[in-house]
User: Fold this.
Amino acid sequence: MLDINLIREKPELVEKDLKKRKDEEKLVWLTDLIKKDKEWRTTKQKLDSLRHERNKISEEINYLIKQKKDYSEKIKKTKKLSEQIKDLEKKESELHEKTKFYLTRLPNITHSTVPYGKDSSGNKVVRVFGKKPNFKFPIKSHIELIEGLNIGDFEQAAKVSGFGFNYLKGKLAILDRALIQFAIDQITKKKYRLVEPPLLLRRKPYEGVTDLSDFETMMYKIEDEDLYLIATSEHPIAALYMDRLLDKKELPIKLVGVSPCFRKEIGSHGVDQKGLFRVHQFYKVEQFIFCEPKNSWKFHEELIKNAEDIFKKLRLPFRTINICTGDIGTVAAKKYDLEAWSPRQKTYIEVVSCSNCTDYQSRRLNIKYQDKNKRDFVHTLNSTAIATGRALVALLENNQQKDGSIKVPTVLQKYTGFKKIEKE
Assistant:
């Protein structure tokens, strides 16, 4: 959430950023927010003045009662004031709710290094790693490999749960677990503390961490309960210090979370009818940092480097891209994506998202830190370490052999106990 004082004092900064985003709807919202905020402040001043006047008259009535004097005119005036106050309270509440509606939906201010672009075509490549494999045989998709090796079942999962769910079997299930533990080990040795978060979250903290449109397009709600299945461990980890005042000495707080993730995936892409890339359920290891504002850009670079190191050790070709203004979304001030090479699709596919959310989440969650007599909102940052489904797509396709088997990356072999996946 943006600071209302920023909008009051420097609305041109917000307007400029919305124009960079090409977000016409929210430009209209900003204009109305400025208008409604002025009305709200004026209304509140009138309301406070009338309440003060009513309290003063009440004291006068009490005095007249003690003096056994007539106070009927004062009573009439009090009733009239109460009616005016009631009307203004309704107006003030309506204006407050409208300004809150706008504030919680206006996007974060993008960093100056975020490239301009109308859509994903405006994203800029920052780094490229690894050599794309040059296969001398017809290559298969990860779906064909999994079905050919009998290490997963897409058809039965769709039958019993619907599209977007999968059975991982035998060595593929072991490989999935190996990726999780490998990522945890890589991040915890860098002094990040492991967290297993709740898998269900109430709406209030959820409203603090994500774009509110996600409730319709992303979240699974538990019927008749104020609970939602988490879409990523980033969300409950961000809420770990909700309504808390941290000491500056505690910062930075570096965490790594592991959890299953649940997503509707309703939107322009939808869910894949078969495969591991765009699904309703998967495992993810997530990095998260709470820090002082002055350090957040340094930590943003640290987080993406951590993710790059993981994929380098897996020896998967990838590129890192700087997401443009038209593709960045609501919450992040700057975002990197790491995209791994898919030989079958002959394109790079997103496997990591790394965001600096500045104080956007912490303002909504009310997470502050104290330095002597100064209090300020922390900055929050998050990055995928590994999302196993998407990582498996790249791993299987890039490591396939002519006979249809899969070579296991060297760094994972101590976790799997085998070097190759053959038909089971």
